[in-house]
Design goal:
Elements lengths: L1 H16 L2 H19 L5 H25 L1 H4 L17 H22 L2 H22 L6 H5 L1 H15 L4 H24 L1 H7 L4 H4 L2 H26 L3 H23 L4 H25 L1
Helix pairs in contact: 2-3, 2-8, 2-14, 3-5, 3-6, 3-8, 5-6, 6-8, 8-9, 9-12, 9-14, 12-13, 13-14
Length: 291
């Protein structure tokens, strides 16, 4: 039993290094984009290959993010338990895992899907690691506004996997996720404002204050909903998506306005925003499959 404990602990550390919960959220946008692009369910093999390739690329990006952020993770309460600060993995191991996963994702998508989807997934990895984590995160208050583009790319990957190109509906899906990301992440930044201040990371609540942050969250939530509605004519989506986008959007904006009035709702809004995005993209797929 003892001989199996160490490998099991290491495996858990590797899985944790890849931030699987973030990957799940990214993939929620990939499959619905494929369904809309295919005007129905695409081949199951194509879905599996795209999801697996996207998972590998996203996991590699998250692992490399852990490597670059290991010095600040150790001083933040929220991240001090990650594999590198707790020395459950070495920096060299994490670096090798990140690079290996990124290469594997590119190779799988190239061979099993198409080159464009592979290039998009790898571009998202490089943008997340090189632009957001390395260049923006510690230097500008607009870090998550710009860096959030990396998390919006899976919708483009899904569309490209089916069509071999990127068209207007895919760009609008990208825009929905891009605009959704700042208020989603700022909710977390409000909750862990002291953590970010201690680590010297210029998140919006630290630099501009909580009132400004909550006001911008309302603005971004409204913009997110507005763009989500443009998908109705752009993608020929019907009643199922239209009603869902309207109801979910009202709930999303209401949550932001409630947070403006009640600062203690930050983590509640953070969770609600996850449900909003997931259900919105599920509604796209359902509308196209049965609408």
């Amino acid at each position: 039993m003892t001989s199996l404990a160490a490998p099991a602990r290491r495996l858990r550390a590797v899985v944790e290094l890849t931030k699987p919960r973030i990957i799940e959220l990214l993939l929620v946008t990939t499959v619905p984009a494929m369904v809309v692009a295919a005007d129905g369910w695409p081949s199951t093999w194509l879905v599996v290959a795209t999801v697996l390739g996207g998972t590998l690329s996203a996991a590699g990006a998250n692992a490399l993010n852990n490597v670059l952020d290991s010095d600040v993770d150790i001083v933040m309460e929220r991240t001090a338990g990650r594999p590198l600060p707790t020395h459950r993995l070495s920096t060299s191991s994490a670096l090798a895992i990140g690079v290996g996963l990124g290469i594997a994702g590119f190779a799988l998508l190239t061979v099993s899907v198409n080159l464009l989807s592979a290039l998009l997934a790898t571009a998202a990895l490089l943008f997340y690691v090189g632009v957001y984590t390395f260049a923006l995160k510690r230097t500008t208050v607009e870090n998550i506004v710009i860096g959030g583009a990396a998390g919006a790319v899976p919708a483009l990957v899904g569309w490209a996997a089916v069509t071999g190109t990127v068209e207007l509906p895919a760009y609008l899906m990208f825009a929905v996720v891009f605009l959704w990301t700042p208020p989603h992440f700022w909710a977390l930044a409000l909750r862990f404002k002291d953590d970010y201040a201690r680590a010297g990371i210029p998140m919006l609540p630290v630099v501009a204050g909580e009132d400004v942050t909550r006001r911008r969250m309302v603005i971004y939530s409204i913009a997110t909903v507005a763009v989500s509605l443009t998908l109705i004519p752009a993608s020929s989506l019907g009643v199922i998506y239209g009603l869902s986008a309207g109801l979910l959007g009202s709930w999303f904006v209401w949550g932001a306005t409630q947070l403006w009035r009640r600062p203690d709702r930050a983590m509640r809004y953070f969770k609600e925003s996850v449900y909003y995005l997931g259900l919105l993209f599920v509604a796209m797929a359902v509308d196209r499959l049965i609408g």
